[in-house]
Amino acid sequence: MKIYSLEEAKQTILKRKGLHQMDYSPLTLQRTEEFFGEGVKPAQAVEIILRSVEEEGDQAIRKWSKKLDRFDGNEIKIPKSELKSAWEQLDPNLQDAMQTAASRIRAFHQRQSIKTWISEDLGGKLGQRITPIERIGVYVPGGTAPLPSSLLMSVIPAQVAGVKNIDIATPPKPAPSILAAAYLCDVNQIYQIGGAQAMAAFAFGTETVARVDKIVGAGNLFVTLAKQQLYGVVGLDGLAGPTETMIIADHTANPSWVAADLLAQAEHDVQASAILLTTDPHLAQAVAEEVDRQIEPLGRKEMIIASIKNAGGIVLVDTLDGAAELANAYGAEHLCLSVDDPELLMGKINNAGGFFLGDHSFEVLGDYVAGPSHVMPTGGTARFASPLNVLDFVKISSVIGLDPQTATQLSKTAGDLADLENLTAHAAAARARLEKK
Predict the structure, then answer these.
(1) How confident is the model at residue 31 (pLDDT cuts 50, 70, 90)?
(2) Whether residue 313 sits in one domain with residue 190
(3) pTM over 0.85
(4) CA-to-CA distance for 115 and 128, rounded, in angstroms?
(5) Average pLDDT, stretch 379-396?
(6) What is the pLDDT confidence band of residue 269, given thresholds at 50, 70 and 90?
(7) Helix boundaries (H) for 111-173
């Protein structure tokens, strides 16, 4: 694992690129042209898919599933009997693990306050009414590493919020573990649809797929591009980029553990980012050596090597305060503080999807069983976005029920402000209340 100077890192692994600046790999461009025609870029391919599903419904879903996912089946819905069967065939130890995770995720989100409130202190009734979104769609990635944990992390906060209709989309022929997680959560319906066509089906609805009010869940490049193009058509949780971890470590950190955590992050994807900031050159060298040693027996070794080469590395910094400034500017999805006083350092940083405090609160626990949803803001969006939580699944409506006396007192002020904006009908409506009947 390469050790960077601060200036080198600022020009490379610490330099953010937005979705609009994304460089597509030659393989991605080649495969896109193979499926969609010469000169067609990924964003154009997504536009083609969205339009066809909007216009042709189930027929388009089957066409794209066959072409892109090599799925010849006609069934879009997966029967609930298959979910039950998958759960019953799951190893009892894995059933226990999944139930433990589900229990902790539910317990964490039940502590989040989302209460309707009404006050009569301002002349009549003013407040906010909280109501759950009626129907959501959750996308669960498939691919080389099926993620039943993502289903738990997305569905359970929605259930805590009171959402009654929760539908799942996942690429065709999903892993039994995903079906088992869907059974455990008792989801409304699961569809075997992948990629941009799943986003389109949720956004527009088809003969088989119910239109949803909001889509949550991360996916591949085509899922993210589809979300970007569907903005304003359907509610969205955000645009997920490659997953990322930043670790800040001092001389007290265990180099073996730090290396293991970096490798766990790099295992996700060739574009995943695993970065260590440290004040200790000896720790930096020890971690680099541990990475080389620990990587050898790992099952996704080639992907990890590519990830570290593309976006990972170790950065030497002068002070922990300097590391905090870098972390705040970077806005990492996962920020792990392997330092002597992690809470003190956390107090100096505002931007992170999640703070992992100390060696015993490592990211893998957050991925599965700690409690908070592991669906977190990526690409620096932690500057303004939050992890998936109960508030993502409710709507806040203002309640205005002023009493006659207060309304009369405020009508003149409202009329004066309407005059300022040259809105004469507004002014007239306000002053109508002042006229004697």
Answers:
(1) confident
(2) no
(3) yes
(4) 9
(5) 95
(6) confident
(7) 148-161
Domain count along the chain: 4
> Furthest-apart CA pair in the chain: how many Å?
87
Contacts of 132 (CB under 8 A, 6+ apart): 161, 162, 163, 164, 393, 394, 395
Contact 275, 312 (CB under 8 A): yes
Same domain, 139 and 167: yes
Same domain, residue pair 84 and 233: yes
> 5: exposed, middle or buried (C-beta count within 10 Å: 0-12, 13-18, 19+)?
exposed
The answer to whether 172 touches 163, Cβ cutoff 8 Å, is no
The residues annotated with a catalytic role in the active site are 333-334
- Residue 213 sits in a domain whose CATH number is 3.40.50.1980
Pair 65, 95 in one domain: no
pLDDT band at 436 (very low <50, low <70, confident <90, very high): low
Are 293 and 353 contained in the same domain? yes
Alpha-helical runs (H) found in 277-434? 281-294, 301-311, 320-330, 342-346, 363-368, 404-420, 424-432
Residue of 97, 87, 92, 93 lying closest to 369 (CA atoms)? 97
Nearest alpha carbon to residue 257 among 234, 304, 291: 291
- 170 shares a domain with 308: no
Query: What are 128's two structure tokens?
Result: 């906010």
Residue tagged 């609805």 (tokens)? 205
Q: How far apart are CA 245 and CA 335, in angstroms?
A: 6
Give the span between the Cα atoms of 350 and 412, in whole angstroms.
43
Residues near 57 by Cβ (< 8 Å), separated by ≥ 6?
A: 206, 207, 208
* Residue range(s) defining the domain that contains residue 412: 403-432
The region that residue 413 occupies, defined by phi over 0 for left and psi between -120 and 50 for alpha, beta otherwise, is: alpha
